[in-house]
Task: structure prediction
Amino acid sequence: MSIEIPISMSLGGDIYFRLKHKGGMKNKLICRFAVNTSFVIDNIATFTKETVDPDKVAKDARYHPDFKIEVFFSDSCPYCSPEHRVEKVCVKCISRMEEEELENWYKIQEILDGHDYPNHEQGVMLNFN
Ligand SMILES: [Zn+2]
Result:
């Protein structure tokens, strides 16, 4: 089974899913799971019986042993990446940010710019002594 979310819907941050079986009288929870888009690697998040809620799903024989949910993402912008400095984020992405979010990104950039990074010798001293 595949559920597709329209590509025009931009999602980011914590996303919470609840899968329900649509019943005649009431909808019954199949499972629920959450993902933060910042931690999605290669645009795919995978969940198994052991990684969804509630915990009883893992022991429930009605769920196939190979039960798996895959959530596929696509990048919302072909030009920007999370590693970019705020000044290098494209106009389209900047326009989607709220003012407070943009201010926070500038503050983070300022903190990172003002931080002294150790050189190789200092790094060795910090990590191995
Ligand atoms: Zn962009």
User: Anything to note?
Assistant: The pocket of zinc ion is lined by residues 77, 79-80, 89-90, 92-93 (CB under 6 Å). Residues 99-114 form the longest helix (16 residues).
